[in-house]
Amino acid sequence: MIFLVFVLIIMSSGLHALWGQQWKDLGSATLALATLTVPFLINTLCNRVKLKLPPGFLFNGVVFIFLAQYQGEVKKFYQTFWWWDVFLHGAFGSLAVLFALYIFNSSFRKDDQLSKARFTVFLGLISLCFSVACSAIWEIFEYLGDIVFPVKMVKGGLEDTMSDLMVGAVTALITAIGYYFLRRVIVYEKE
Question: Furthest-apart CA pair in the chain: how many Å?
Answer without folding.
Answer: 66
